[in-house]
Amino acid sequence: MRKVCLFLMTLVLLTACYYPADEMTLYAVNDNFYLTADSMWLQTQEPLHNMPIDTLSDSVVLYYDDPLVVAQIVVIPEDSIDSIWVKVARDQFTQGWIHQNTFLSSVVPDDPISEFIYLFSQRHLWYFLGVVFIVLVVIVWRQIRHSHFHVIFVRDISSFYPTLLAVTLSSSAILYASIQRLVPETWVMYYYHPTLNPFDLPLILGLFIASIWLLVVLIIATIDEVFTLLPIPEAILYLFSLLGVCVVCYLVFSQAVLGWVGYILFVLLSVALICRYFRFFRARYVCGNCGAKMHSKGRCTRCKTLNV
Q1: Which end of the chain lies in a sparser environment, N or C, as judged by fewer CB atoms within 10 Å?
Q2: What is the secondary structure of 214-265 as a DSSP string?
Q3: CB atoms < 10 A from the CB of 285, how many?
Q4: What's the rounded Cα separation, in Å, for the pair 35 and 42?
Q5: Which of 70 and 46 is assigned the larger pLDDT?
Q6: Is the pTM of this model over 0.85?
């Protein structure tokens, strides 16, 4: 176990190459953005060297979700607030200047991947996931008390896909936390220049994107397998329990504050889940009536035939 943890730590350090996250390289002229702040004020007069900033009084206002394009970038070294000014335009008649720091904190790149990252990083989403998890726990607990239906890791099905999905999601979350903790500049650059090609990225980012692709495949395979092995009502409840486990895995392992403890916890949890599946839930039999996989003799979960 010690050697495994050491290997993971070494891998993270060796793959921690990153893009230089100089703000001047994050965007360029003609790049497109969307305004995420409620409003943003632009100065209509171009900032000039040695000109007092308070003399630039004319301004226009932009509002939430307005499309913007970068028209020009200038550097004013004597500006004590921010030396970089950005000229942005909503249309031919609505354009003006704003400090770069204010601009970057108020917009999101006009790219579906960047918009998804922005949405997924919002604090209110964490509250939503917490509420979803509590609701799922209540639903599953009520069903457990009144019936003996299948639930992930408790009365599991004879398929390795759900376990592999939970382990893969945990690995994706811990990769994300590693990027945020060790090489945040790499993530910032990816936010402004996203791609779904894992081979066109630094190794640690490429591994993360590859794990996302694997998650998509596993989600499809898991849903298909669950509905194949269980009746529709039981399959839906089982998927609810699986969703609750996935939410917990993401919330736990995506927290960068875990530090190195997160890697140890990930290794221990992965080994425990995989060993538990192969010891208690791996399919050793098939139903004599419908051919469904079964981990033990008894009543088939699909056709209810008793196998002895």
Answers
A1: C
A2: HHHHHHHHHHHHHHHHS-HHHHHHHHHHHHHHHHHHHHHHT-GGGTHHHHHH
A3: 15
A4: 13
A5: 70
A6: no
